Amino acid sequence: PEGVRLHPDSVSFVEKMLEIINQESVLFVGEGALLYQDKIVKDFTGISCFPPIGLQSPLASSVAQLGLTRLINKDAASAEDIVPVYLHTLSPK
Asked: What letter does residue 55 receive in the DSSP assignment?
């Protein structure tokens, strides 16, 4: 099944990100999810999901597998349409 994007790609503090989440179930992945797992579990008891440790940080091979699936399903983007997204970190004020 496809995931649902809750918010556009952005950089924000964890408190701000957690304010926008209002779903029945949310899958948290990546280094930030590991770093703030205790807070996430506390704030989202019963709706927060975390994959097994080996699947916490998506690998390039996982992205390639998703791309292959889209290619097979004739749902792949053309190379001309692919644009990188650069996000910058925030500095606490």
From this structure: G
